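Following up on my earlier thread - several people asked me to post the actual chain instead of describing it. Fair enough. Here it is, all 246 residues.
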Amino acid sequence: MNRNLVAWVMLLASALAFASPDSLVIDVHSAKASFQSPTGIWWPKSVGKSARKSSAKRANAPVVVWFHGGMGSANCAKGLVAGTDFAELYPEKIVVSVSACRENHWVTPAAITAVDAALDSIAARRKSPVERVSLVGVSDGSLGVLVYSLEGRRAVEDRLLMSSFGAFLGEPAGLASPKKMHTGRFRFLQGGKDRLYPSDQTEPWITEFCKAVQVDCELRFDPEGEHDWSYWKGKRMDWIRDAIRK
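Reply from S.P.:
Thanks for posting it. Predicted structure:
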């Protein structure tokens, strides 16, 4: 990671109480990159009758990072809304969704810096450090899961990669070898009817990666599986819930 990268976070939400969602604009500047990343943060919903207990649960809730697909899209505010659908599945967690955009995609230091800046903002808001996170990515958002695992500042627990094509990053054994990959879990969901990433190319890569990575790693294959998040949410919620534990 480029140590010269500096990130600033501007809170746009004015409410003092936890709300869902908050909006942030993250400015990332370096000699090679300068971009703004609109970001959404979904806080856990209130639970129970005790406001004090509810606030404590929300402040200490686990954090999940959502990496949207279309990482090179011209829609530079994609992350601000992309996590909404996923956050509804985990009302007890804090979900953060950062925007990748054009040349500032998930495989760049600037985008990974933006993710950690958003996590810094969460820590400041709840007055409690974010030391561990879980990661979820769909399509090329899955590349963000892999790259953050290598380059991010937080330890990683659960990883969910849907409709992924890790071969974009290189050979599986080489990607699996760094020590930072040897923590947490990996869950891959792959479909036989993926129109972008054919299973005869993706399955062998994932299988080799799981053999090499030396931690809990599993490929779940659906012969009818399609590429988009809507398919996995509609047909394989049991797999998603198992991948990101409560």
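Confidence is low (pLDDT under 50) at residues 8-20. That should answer part of your original question.
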